Amino acid sequence: MAGNGPPPKENAVRRNAVDLSHLEGDDVPDKVKKLFKRDGYSVATCRWWDTWVESEQSESFKATDWQRLQMLAPLVEAYFRRPGHNALAEIRQNESLLGATVTDRMRLCMNKGESNKQNNDGKPDSYPENVKDMELYRSLGGA
């Protein structure tokens, strides 16, 4: 069975900086964030769209991401009218690429939290709690 590899070690220290520049949102015009021909869609589809507009990950969306959601809206509407596993699979796949679930956001490194921040010197803010001798830790290749 395919997967994303083994889980990381509990006491692993990341020494390479994580590039989060892709999370910086562009100034996307408000008209791009509006559902095209909204009156033609059901309440459920409009609610789906509004959920995406108000989501935290949409702050980093570019115009192409909004275009992807616009293209997905008719498929979501069709699914709400007549549910089927094929439509749901396509919706799930597209939403996954936009960071719909916690796992998707972790895979896409969309976490803006404090855990990804490091000092200017590239050293981590804290060391693993099982390290007793900091000099020995550093001499063995630790931060």
Task: Describe the structure in your own words.
The protein starts with 42 loop residues before the first helix and ends with a helix. The protein has a domain at 27-112. Helices cover 39% and strands 0% of the residues. The protein is built from five helices and no strands. It is mainly α. Residues 114-120 have low confidence and may be disordered. Residues 1-20, 111-132 are annotated as: Disordered. Residues 11-20, 120-132 have a biased composition (Basic and acidic residues). This is Terminase small subunit.
Provide the low-confidence segments as ranges. 114-120
Q: Tell how many strands the DSSP assignment holds.
A: 0
Helix content: 25-40%
Helical/strand content category: mainly alpha
Instruction: Note the total helix count.
Output: 5
Shape: elongated
What fraction of the residues are assigned to beta strands by DSSP?
under 5%
Taking Cα atoms only, what radius of gyration do you get, to the nearest Å?
Answer: 21 Å
Distance between the termini: 36 Å
What's the helix-strand series? Answer: HHHHH
Protein name: Terminase small subunit
Organism: Acrocarpospora pleiomorpha
Pfam families: Terminase_7
Biased composition (Basic and acidic residues): 11-20, 120-132
